[in-house]
Amino acid sequence: MSAPELVIDALELADVPRVVELEQQSFAADSPWPASAFRAELNAPYNRYFAAREHPGDPVIGYAGISTLGIPGSYECEIHTIAVAHTHRGLGYGRALLDALLAVADAIDAPVFLEVRTDNDTAIALYERNGFATAGIRRGYYQPSGADAHTMIRPSASGRVGTDDAGGATS
């Protein structure tokens, strides 16, 4: 058996059943998304979803999604999810998925926003190593567990943090 590669490619509709399994394992306490939600996400033109696999064509062992919001010149991105199978954590798949998401944002010079459980130290450390800073807290964000979430922001490649109410860039 050969050593696993680190393959990041597009998440496809055919991957949804496996993604739902991983979603159940990773987020059982916090309303895991059903297959219909993933299909809707994959069909939305403003979203990009990626799959992590050990080898090309293998089953999904991790997945991640990002949306692009706004208009040219003032885009913002929001990370919807990143998850890796328990059996493959700590092997670089989460980092590779985050890199793919950040490449989407960097290509359009967009700041990136996300929410992460306040007790998910591993994810928080990954985000901080990649330029994210905590901007606030959302009490009881995750349901039904009631867990709190940090809101984190990573500025765009040019340093822009967001947009003002008139649609202009702010820093």
Automatic annotation (TrEMBL):
InterPro entries on file: AcTrfase_RimI/Ard1, Acyl_CoA_acyltransferase, GNAT_dom, YpeA/RimI_acetyltransf
Family named by the database record: Belongs to the acetyltransferase family. RimI subfamily.
Region of interest (Disordered), ranges: 152-171
The organism's place on the tree of life at top rank: Bacteria
Keyword Cell cycle belongs to the record: no
Keywords, comma-separated and alphabetical: Acyltransferase, Cytoplasm, Ribonucleoprotein, Ribosomal protein, Transferase
GO molecular function: N-acetyltransferase activity
Annotated Gene Ontology cellular component terms: ribosome
Pfam family, one: Acetyltransf_1
Domain N-acetyltransferase: 6-153
Protein source organism: Gordonia desulfuricans
Protein name from the UniProt record: Ribosomal protein S18-alanine N-acetyltransferase
